[in-house]
Recover the amino acids of this structure.
């Protein structure tokens, strides 16, 4: 089959790789009909995620048709359309029983590798390094789905792939980012990053009752899209974010701040930006945490900082003094996607959220290298690339 594989820093290739096969009775094989390039895939593309190997199949946002079913899977049948959540979860461990699916204790066969960096291992993930299981991803013609009796969500035929594909990751992630804020009616929410996850966080904050949502980015067309979703756009390249947020909130700061950027954030200050870019390039830190620092410093006293942008290891100059002395609450995590898929599907069907509005490009699978380039460099108005094998 054809698949998108990592070919070194800033390089992906579409190559022929072996077809997946059933390895466990709880597996299914899915013929992928739609898959997407995620912002967190760019961290792999840029070479900042450890334990990625040349030839690893990428991608963790995918859906398709079940073509083969393991003996222990009774809830799916050949021909079913399914969306596959990016965390792989057994459904029976202590974490899964608490709906903390991205912390599954049984799905990462390389847990020892993760423990060395993270202390304890999270769940295995599709297409996201050997430290997180080494599972082949979904930017391919076919994919093996472990624990398929727990993860995949069946989809009715009257819904298009574009309407439901993002249930695999970014829609639940943005929603969880807003949910962790414990928003009450009338609250002000600031979202760093007007990419796909940030945009879904904007939409979700309004669903939870926010009175005003501010979207912070530096790319004009992304800020324009955030504005169409009801957010107040704020270009950090043109103004001081801290000062603008104080002005908007009469000096208090936003009630809740959501970091939807993660480890490769940019900063309006050339000096600060250069500092972190050099340290990251020299592997003296794995993150450029500008967005997170700014979120902490901007948030009102006693407010919440919700972190859904991906981080991989360690960072420098984190303002812990502000967190402690100002009674801030930090909530974070890889999304527990299985918890949210059905409720969010109901919201999509009810017209409360339109996931299709963030899609800018449909490309063939063999055009994946081009998709990565335009997504990374914000070219051609690219907000989200969907690949169709």
């Amino acid at each position: 089959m054809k698949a998108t594989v990592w070919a070194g820093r800033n390089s992906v290739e579409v190559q022929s790789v072996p077809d997946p096969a059933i390895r466990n009775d709880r597996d299914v094989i899915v013929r992928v009909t739609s898959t997407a390039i995620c912002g967190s895939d760019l961290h792999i593309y840029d070479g900042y995620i450890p334990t990625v190997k040349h030839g690893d199949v990428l991608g963790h946002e995918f859906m398709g048709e079940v073509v083969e079913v393991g003996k222990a899977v009774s809830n799916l049948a050949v021909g079913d359309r399914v969306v596959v959540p990016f965390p792989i979860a057994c459904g029976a461990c202590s974490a899964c029983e608490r709906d903390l699916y991205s912390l599954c204790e049984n799905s990462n066969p390389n847990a020892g590798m993760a423990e060395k960096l993270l202390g304890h291992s999270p769940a295995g993930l599709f297409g996201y390094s050997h430290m997180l299981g080494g599972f082949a991803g979904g930017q391919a013609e076919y994919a093996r789905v472990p624990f398929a009796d727990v993860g995949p969500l069946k989809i009715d035929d009257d819904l298009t792939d574009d309407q439901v594909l993002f249930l695999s990751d970014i829609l639940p992630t943005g929603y969880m980012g807003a949910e962790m804020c414990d928003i009450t009616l009338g609250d002000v929410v600031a979202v760093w990053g007007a990419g796909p996850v940030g945009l879904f966080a904007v939409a979700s904050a309004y669903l939870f009752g926010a009175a005003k949502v501010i979207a912070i980015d530096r790319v004009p067309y992304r800020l324009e899209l955030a504005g169409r979703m009801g957010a107040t756009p704020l270009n950090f390249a043109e103004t001081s974010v801290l000062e603008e947020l104080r002005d908007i909130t009469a000096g208090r700061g936003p009630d809740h701040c959501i970091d939807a950027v993660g480890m490769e954030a940019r900063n309006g200050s050339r000096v600060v930006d250069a500092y972190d870019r050099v340290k990251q390039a020299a592997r003296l830190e794995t993150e450029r945490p500008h967005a997170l620092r700014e979120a902490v410093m901007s948030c009102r006293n006693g407010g919440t900082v919700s972190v859904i942008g991906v981080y991989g290891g360690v960072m420098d100059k984190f303002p812990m003094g502000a967190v402690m002395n100002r009674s801030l609450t930090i909530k974070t995590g890889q999304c527990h996607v299985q918890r949210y898929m059905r409720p969010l599907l109901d919201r999509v069907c009810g017209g409360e959220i339109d996931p299709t509005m963030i899609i800018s490009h449909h490309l063939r699978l063999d055009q994946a290298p081009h998709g990565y380039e335009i997504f990374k460099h914000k070219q051609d108005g690219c907000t989200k690339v969907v690949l169709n094998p």
About this structure: Residues 43 and 254 are 28 Å apart (CA to CA).
